[in-house]
């Protein structure tokens, strides 16, 4: 009981009443009709609830009303969970609303929470089962109503951002009794059509308007899609179970179109970069091949250098041949001398045996000498064949020729050694040919350099 001797200030009494109301009533459920509604710049809602006989002012702060999922309008029947409080500055009784929903939707909200819990426990919403979207999409399937504003939003977003994307629309009702079955059938058709990705979308609405996207069969159909799918339903505050089951949730239909498509300008820039990289790679490869050809050309012998090599080998062979023959004969002579002295020392001891041995030795000596001479002849023949094969005459017989001035013994080694109109002698295998220089062409490149360096 309040002591009558106690004198309260106005603010003390207002605070006392506020505490009393909070302690007495706590949170209460109230149902009524929206009599007025104002949305402040701060985001808070100020409204009044009424019935046939009474009216109460109410406030719903921004951090709470963003969860409502709709904007109340005058005349709407709503149900709120609120606290009764005194607005002390004005001395007005008001409701501080925590939760608001349209009247009659309580059962739907409970169903939503129960189904969400069930499917979450099954793992239907796990991030591990969600697939990444393709990096580039050219063929898109859009599941929505042909009359929906969401379709216009998707078309506008694709035309502005990614005109390269082709899309097919699969019509379905998006609310009403037949909507769930039609959505499932449209998903099945789109999923089997070979699209690279799918978008399921519709505009905003109340929980009842969006309920088709909370039907268990629809949610499971979204999760069962083999094609990567994005679901964008309603506004940012609208969240349906179909969005949880999708590979990616979009806040709005427009956002869904933007998430599924890369900008054409970005793709063109990437193609340009790849083109530049390919040209660099081809240029580098061509340079490597040119270098290999240059190295191969450096390894080739010019005709003049080849003749010089043959002449050098022939000279070496001619120089070695007499020495080889002389050395072979000296060795044979020395061997004969040794054998002869050995025979002479034994002749006095056993003349008869010596005679027989001498005959045998002489016979063997002659045979050995014949074999050695035959072997020497064979080696001489082989060396002669080599000498003959590399001789200048054989080179000329293979089609080569060398040029000399008509009067003179110099050899023409370069186009720089002659002038147009000069008379030349071309020596071939079986004679000489007189020729006149009508035209000359100087070779360019590494081969010409080799010719100049060999002079």
TrEMBL record:
Query: Which Pfam family is one of this chain's hits?
Result: Exonuc_VII_L
Question: Record's superkingdom?
Answer: Bacteria
How is the subunit organization of this protein annotated in UniProt? Heterooligomer composed of large and small subunits.
Q: Quote the catalytic activity from the record.
A: Exonucleolytic cleavage in either 5'- to 3'- or 3'- to 5'-direction to yield nucleoside 5'-phosphates
Listed A to Z, the keywords are: Cytoplasm, Exonuclease, Hydrolase, Nuclease
Name the record gives this protein? Exodeoxyribonuclease 7 large subunit
Homology family: Belongs to the XseA family.
InterPro entries the UniProt entry points to: Exonuc_VII_L, Exonuc_VII_lsu_C, OB-fold_nuc-bd_dom
The gene that this protein is the product of is xseA
Report the source organism: Limnobacter profundi
For this protein, the Enzyme Commission number is: 3.1.11.6
């Amino acid at each position: 009981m309040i002591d009558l001797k106690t004198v309260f200030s106005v603010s003390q009494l207002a605070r006392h009443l506020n505490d009393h109301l909070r302690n007495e009533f706590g949170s209460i459920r109230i149902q009524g009709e929206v009599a007025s509604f104002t949305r402040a710049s701060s985001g808070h809602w100020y409204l009044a609830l009424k019935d046939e006989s009474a009216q109460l002012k109410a406030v719903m702060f921004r951090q709470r009303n963003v969860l409502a999922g709709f904007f109340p309008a005058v005349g709407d029947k709503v149900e709120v969970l609120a606290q009764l409080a005194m607005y002390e500055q004005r001395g007005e009784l008001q409701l501080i609303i925590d939760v608001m929903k349209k009247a009659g939707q309580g059962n739907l909200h409970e169903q939503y929470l129960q189904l969400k819990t069930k499917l979450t426990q099954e793992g239907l919403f796990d991030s591990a089962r969600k697939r990444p979207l393709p990096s580039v999409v050219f063929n898109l399937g859009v599941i929505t109503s042909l009359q929906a504003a969401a379709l216009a939003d998707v078309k506008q977003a694709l035309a502005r951002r990614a005109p390269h994307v082709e899309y097919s629309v699969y019509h379905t009702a998006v609310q009403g009794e037949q909507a769930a079955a039609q959505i499932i059938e449209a998903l099945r058709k789109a999923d089997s059509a070979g699209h690279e990705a799918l978008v399921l979308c519709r505009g905003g609405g109340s929980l009842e308007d969006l309920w088709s996207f909370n039907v268990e069969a629809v949610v499971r159909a979204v999760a069962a899609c083999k094609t990567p799918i994005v679901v964008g339903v309603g506004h940012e505050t609208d969240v349906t179970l179909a969005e949880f089951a999708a590979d990616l949730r979009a806040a709005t239909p427009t956002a869904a179109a933007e998430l599924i498509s890369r900008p054409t300008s970005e793709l063109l820039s990437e193609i340009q970069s790849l083109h530049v990289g390919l040209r660099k790679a081809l240029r580098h490869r061509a340079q490597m091949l040119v270098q290999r050809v240059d190295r191969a050309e450096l390894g080739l012998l010019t005709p003049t250098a080849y003749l010089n090599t043959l002449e050098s080998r022939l000279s070496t062979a001619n120089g070695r041949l007499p020495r080889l023959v002389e050395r072979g004969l000296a060795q044979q002579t020395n061997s004969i001398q040794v054998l002869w002295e050995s025979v002479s020392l034994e002749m006095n001891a056993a003349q008869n045996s010596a005679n027989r041995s001498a005959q045998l030795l002489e016979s063997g000596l002659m045979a050995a000498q014949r074999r050695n001479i035959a072997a020497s002849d064979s080696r001489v023949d082989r060396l002669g064949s080599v000498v003959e094969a590399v001789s200048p005459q054989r080179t000329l017989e293979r089609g080569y020729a060398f040029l000399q001035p008509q009067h003179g013994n110099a050899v023409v080694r370069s186009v720089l050694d002659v002038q147009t109109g000069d008379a030349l002698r071309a020596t071939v295998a079986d004679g000489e040919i007189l020729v006149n220089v009508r035209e000359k062409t100087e070779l360019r490149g590494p081969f010409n350099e080799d010719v100049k360096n060999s002079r």
